[in-house]
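Following up on my earlier thread - several people asked me to post the actual chain instead of describing it. Fair enough. Here it is, all 274 residues.
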Amino acid sequence: RESIVSLRIFLHLRGKNGKEDRAVGQVSIPIREMLEICGPCIHHTWLLLDPYAAYGSQPRSQVAGHFRRAFSEVSAKLHSPRICISLMEVTVEPSNWVNSAQDRAFYHDPLLVSHAQHVQTVQAYLDYCDREKLDFRKHRKRQPAEEGTPEDLVNRRRAEEQKLRLQLDQLTQQANQRIEKSNEEILKLNAQLKEMMENEDPDLEEERQDILAMLQERRCHAEELQKRSEGTNAQLRNLRDEVQILKEEKEALFLEVQEIYSRQKARPERPVAA
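Reply from S.P.:
Thanks for posting it. Predicted structure:
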């Protein structure tokens, strides 16, 4: 729970040396604060990037504060660099959560946090667009009227609109192709992982069982030695108590003998009859 996971993001140019990569930013995720905010994992959640800094240069309390701000200020800093991440165990597959009531309950919080953040961010973008549209209208009112007839203005605007729609369709098609390619790679990797887990070497499994059995035997032996040690310590304490009692009795007996000797020495000697 006290561990910290740190991610550093670099901008890499194809064909260039890795030493020339430009640092974009970094984010540190303290596990204890992650469990409090997101639940048992992070699922498709945006985090703001902090400036590049050396590891260990900040105390943990400061790292925790940066993480809370990186999570909560996404919708307030729309133009700041950020990253969408998922952080969970390797064996966890989000697409299988719906198949188990236990998984649905266990991973409810990460999904709720992710959807709530996306809703806030989308609403922030809509508010930003409304403000920009209002500023644009005010700016257009201050500009002089365009030359030409109303029909020419309509035709130019339709041409611009058609051009923008064509560009938008091209970008959408490219994005969909990349998403499909990424999904295919993810499915392929999941299939390979599943095949590796199913075809695990039986010798390795047997060796693992032997190691576990040996470990259990060592634990039992250690517990037995601990019990013997506790019994030996108790006997040793009893012997020490008995030795202390004998010392006290010896000292008392010595004092008593010394007192008797002193009394006999102080008694006057009787004359011996002739």
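The chain has a mean pLDDT of 81. That should answer part of your original question.
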